[in-house]
Write a structure and sequence with these properties.
The complex is a heterodimer of chains A (about 280) and B (about 375). Chain A is α/β, with parallel strands linked by helices. Chain A has helices at about 45-50, 75-80, 100-110, 115-130, 145-155, 175-190, 205-210, 225-230, 235-245, 245-260, and strands at about 5-15, 20-30, 35-40, 60-65, 70, 85, 165, 195-200, 210-215, 220-225. Chain A has two domains: about 1-85 and about 165-270, P-loop containing nucleotide triphosphate hydrolases (Rossmann fold, 3-Layer(aba) Sandwich); about 90-160, no CATH class. Helix content of chain A is about 35%, strand content about 20%. In chain A, the strands form two sheets. A six-stranded mixed sheet of chain A has the order 6-7-8-3-9-10. In chain A, strands 2-1-4-5 form a four-stranded antiparallel sheet, covered by helices on one side. The two termini of chain A are about 30 Å apart. Chain B is mainly alpha-helical and about 375 residues long. In chain B, helix 1 (about 30-40) runs parallel beside helix 2 (about 55-70), helix 7 packs across helix 10 and helix 11 packs antiparallel against helix 12 (about 335-365). The termini of chain B are far apart. The interface between A and B is medium-sized, with 38 and 31 residues.
Chain lengths: ~280, ~375
């Protein structure tokens, strides 16, 4: 590819009091790829995400997003935030606004568009994430968990960002809903040429849509690579993760999908060829 | 790189050609929309060969034009653009944006009706809540487990001990103000010495208790409503029910008992500090020595004043705690609801305290206990 990484983290150190979360963490996210981030509970996945989007000030290290240094005090986070979308774990929809109004919040904040166009944009974004038309006028409290996730994704996509952060997007969804969400993310990436930074525990998601997976353990990125490459690693945690009973089941399911001719990962619009991987089990 | 559009229609009934170049993105959406609207009427032929970047908003505007002007078509679209156009076209479905499209006057009437029904329902629910609280208290007191005294003492600390500083300071200053204003007015009649009567009777009978109750309503009714309301949003109340805990027994009863017990104590403490504040002013500006002041207070303040004040306080405490807890339990749905209920809790508890105070004033006069 040879392109500059969209996100580049170097020597990141994060600590809370005496507890060190990250110690010299390095990570690159390349344009047009879907990078999955995995790690045990409490390994600092969410802290890494919060550091990258500027919500958490790291103790040391540099973070560059679109070539801009997020960690420097001169960084214009507001301008950067126009170019990325974030889907928080619980959705974080504004509870006092309807779904459509939630989607319009970033549009209103950053752009001066005529009202009818803004309504149309909200309407097609809501349809794009697979929500029914009635959902637009509903308040977040009136939606189910899965619908709330989709609504939050519609808001994250409102500004047509080039970079999308997803924090456990399929957690709490039923398997059918989770699979549909995976396909939705894949379609969006392929049509809009998005770069995705995806925190997940969902092995099916990892195997179906991620081009590369970064394993966070021992306060740093232990390894980055395709699922097949990672399963060949000789590290106890990684082996347990990908070759445990659940990992094998997900890999088997993925192999069966590919055997059935359903190529799960077509090439992205940005030209980043990402071959579908059969699980290494 | 600006989006450029120039119409080069050949005027033979065939679609006008409209080349679009550069970036068709959300940042240029307003300009692009204007250009497309200004294009001559009738079908258009959009030439997208010069497009360098396009996002869904650009694709949406192109799609909308194709949809609204039958016969229009696009030329020179790359594979990516075609795919994006198809994606946007698939998402072109009717969607409701505003929750209530009815006319404003109808909504106003509806709001008024809802307010009346809401008020009636709240009154009923409030009475039911008081009844439930009393029943649960009785049942818990008689059951083997008994009242949760640990929770009661915790609440006493939070609502009483932690309020000592602010309640004390407030009462002390109020005492000074009464004394100062009283002295100025009574000086006109040469009756400055009656300032002491004013301070003693006003604080023990009315102000010490009333102002404490208002301060506690602001501090604790809001805290109760916000605590219980947030627990309700987090489904903690539901979790309690499934474990077999009665939220009224666990959350409401200890709070009501704590405030009922603590408010007379706080009120007494406040009255004493108000008397001290008044005494300080009498000493410094009226030259009444403390010993004389204390003796005069004992002579002019009848015990009935003290007992009336103390009799009112538990009722104030109970009303404040019940209002706070009740409003907390009424929270539903959103974070906004917590804020709204907390506000209502403070306003209603202060209002109810003043209504009760007026009732007691009439009541004690009617039974001749003055």
């Amino acid at each position: 590819m040879g392109e500059a990484p969209v996100i580049s983290v170097r020597g990141l150190v994060n600590r809370f009091g005496t507890q060190v979360v990250h110690e010299g963490l390095d990570l690159d996210v390349l344009p047009g790829e879907i990078l999955g981030v995995v790690g045990g509970s409490g390994s600092g996945k969410s802290v890494l995400l919060r550091s990258i989007i500027g919500l958490q000030h790291p103790a040391a290290g540099t973070i560059r997003v679109f070539g801009e240094e997020v960690t420097s005090p001169e960084c214009d986070l507001l301008a950067l935030s126009r170019r990325w979308g974030v889907l928080f774990q619980a959705g974080a929809l504004f509870s006092g606004l309807t779904v459509a109004e939630n989607v319009q919040v970033p549009l209103r904040e950053h752009l001066a568009l005529p009202e009818p166009l803004m309504d149309e944009i909200a309407a097609y974004k809501i349809a794009m994430v697979g929500l029914p038309g009635e959902a637009g006028a509903k308040y977040p409290a009136e939606l189910s968990g899965g619908m709330r996730k989709r609504a939050a994704l519609a808001r994250a996509l409102a500004m047509d960002p080039a970079l999308l952060f997803l924090d456990e997007p399929t957690a709490g969804l039923d398997p059918v809903g989770a699979a549909a969400f995976d396909q939705l993310v894949l379609t969006l990436r392929n049509t809009m040429g998005l770069t995705l930074f995806l925190i997940t525990h969902d092995l099916d998601t990892l195997m179906t849509i991620c081009d590369r997976v970064a394993v966070i353990a021992e306060k740093r990125v232990l390894a980055v690579g395709s699922v097949a490459e990672l399963t060949r690693l000789d590290h106890p945690w990684v082996r347990d993760y990908f070759l445990g009973p659940r990992g094998r089941a997900a890999a088997g399911a993925q192999a069966a999908r590919i055997a059935a001719g359903e190529r799960a990962v077509p090439a992205a619009a940005g030209g980043s060829a990402a071959p579908a991987q059969a699980g290494g089990a | 790189m600006a989006t450029q559009a120039a119409d080069t229609g050949d005027g033979t009934g065939r679609p006008h050609r409209l080349p679009l170049e550069g970036e068709l993105t959300i940042d240029r959406a307003a300009g692009l929309e204007r250009r497309l609207a200004e294009a001559p009427a009738g079908p258009l032929s959009l030439d997208l060969a010069g497009v360098t970047r396009i996002d869904t908003v650009g694709a949406w505007l192109v799609h909308r034009l194709l949809r609204d002007r039958p016969g229009s078509r696009v030329e020179g679209a790359s594979a990516g653009v075609t795919r994006l156009l198809a994606e946007v076209a698939a998402a072109d479905r009717p969607c409701s944006i505003r929750p209530d499209p009815r006319p404003a006057w109808l909504r106003e009437i509806e709001k008024a009706g809802e307010a009346v029904i809401g008020a009636v329902n709240t009154m009923g629910a409030g009475l039911g809540f008081v009844g439930t609280m009393l029943l649960v208290t009785l049942r818990t007191a008689l059951s083997g487990r008994g009242i949760r005294w640990h929770a009661v003492s915790q609440q006493m600390e939070a609502t009483g001990i932690n309020a000592l500083g602010i309640v004390g300071l407030m009462s002390f200053l109020i005492g000074i103000v009464i004394a100062q204003q009283g002295a100025v007015q009574l000086e006109q009649f040469g009756a400055q010495v009656f300032t002491i009567n004013l301070i003693g009777r006003a604080t023990f009978r009315e102000l010490g208790i009333l102002l404490t109750a208002i301060m506690v309503a602001g501090r604790s009714a809001s805290a109760f409503a916000a605590q219980i309301g947030t627990m309700k949003l987090n489904e903690e109340i539901d979790a309690m029910r499934t474990i077999g805990l009665d939220p009224v027994e666990v959350l409401v009863v200890p709070r009501v008992i704590a405030l009922t017990v603590i408010l007379p104590l706080l009120g007494f403490y406040a009255s004493i500090l108000a008397v001290i504040g008044g005494g300080l002013l009498c000493w410094t500006s009226l030259d009444i020595p403390p010993a004389t002041y204390v003796q005069r207070i004992r002579e002019v303040v009848p015990m009935s004043d003290f007992w009336i004040g103390m009799a009112k306080a538990p009722f104030f405490g109970a009303v404040i705690a019940l209002t706070g807890c009740f409003q907390g339990m009424q929270v539903a749905g959103t974070a906004e609801s917590v804020g709204a209920r907390t506000t209502i809790a403070v306003v209603q508890s202060i209002f109810l305290v003043i209504v009760l105070d007026a009732f007691f004033a009439v009541f004690f006069t009617a039974i001749g206990f003055v």
